[in-house]
Amino acid sequence: MDRNRRMRVPSRDQIAGTVPASDGIGHKGEDSLAGVRVIVAPLCGVTDSVFRKICLDRGADLAVTEMISSEGLVRNSSHVRSVRHLNMSDGPLSLQIFGADAEVMGEAAAILSELNPRYIDMNFGCPVRKIVNKNGGSAILKDTKHLARICECVVEKSKVPVSAKIRAGWDKATEENVSDLARVIEDTGVSMITVHARTKAQAFKGKANWLLVKAMKDAVSIPVVGNGDVIDAESYFRMREETGCDAVMIGRAAIGNPWVFKEVAAAIEGREYVPPSPRERVGALLEHVRLAVMYYGEYLGVISTRRMMSAYLKRFRNAREIRSKLMACDEFAALEDLMHGYLAEIEKFDDNVEGRAA
Questions:
Q1: Where are the domains of the chain?
Q2: For the segment 84-129, what is each residue's pLDDT rounded down to a tens digit?
Q3: Which fold has domain 278-357?
Q4: pLDDT higher for 156 or 29?
Q5: What is the pLDDT of residue 355?
């Protein structure tokens, strides 16, 4: 069986044919966050081009890509997976880069800013060991001089606004330390800061401390985006009210539930939010896999979305049995037949329940 092996294509070649975005800001201005209320967070291994499109089509105002290796991009490596299938027309995008070398980060920003994204975003928050051990991600927060140098190089080289995503600190975050970090970043000319209100040591555990988002917002004049523990419209409004942040970023809560962005948008605009029906949920699951198949080939497209399929199914009745069957599928047609049959059973059951109630 053809397993659709990925071709090793140099990173520059992967983006060479990418048409620049027509909706980018195009300059470094104070209004770089205008019209943006809720953002898709960058999640490694999750927010690929398929996931971003799914979320943007369901109400997200902006999506941030997975981390793009500045070293890999500048060296034109074939291993920079996160630039594959980069389509700037999918919706407003922010292109996130990571690395520890200031000059290389600047060169990567120069390359990617030619695509006219809404932002070039710098990752200073990743807690993953393999990134931190190379002095990237949240490790940079331990050295504010180095942090400032990276920001300066990226701002100098980028043709579009620059943003930074940080953790609240390395281990024991305080409002004073977060404020100091924010001022260092602002002074370099960065246009916007996102803070995940957990420390590197916390990773994704424990409760996000929104007081740290407020401290950062109070410390700087540039826009601040809050991130951490926002899962629905109610928590969106609580974060905005408690912190004063300019926008909110949602990550894990959108896995299997991209409609969270529609829910937030409806609440902001004073409209009633109607949760998706089983048919809409099945449709989104199949759309997700179909796009993955189109981008990655059938075998890789199906097996690489198994985690997503499980997430969509969390909201289905009696999902365990169908989930095990889906995990055994490696062809889209079989998966599609399975889900259509399952949907017919659900709708028949719901009709019977409504009939008995009437």
A1: 11-268, 278-357
A2: 889 999 889 999 999 999 999 999 999 999 999 999 999 998 888 8
A3: 1.10.1200
A4: 156
A5: 41
- Mean pLDDT, the chain, whole residue set: 90
Residue from 182, 179, 119 nearest 147 by CA: 182
CB burial readout 132-167, b (16+ within 10 A) else e: beeebbbbbbeeeebbbbbbbbbbebbbbbbbbbbb
44 labelled catalytic: no
What element of type H or E holds 111?
helix 102-113
Q: Is the pTM of this model over 0.70?
A: yes
Given the residues 126, 153, 245, 329, select the one marked as catalytic.
126
What stretches of 116-259 show up as alpha helix (H) in DSSP?
129-132, 144-157, 175-187, 210-219, 233-243
Q: Which CATH number fits domain 11-268: 3.20.20.140, 3.40.50.920, 3.40.50.1820, 3.20.20.70?
A: 3.20.20.70
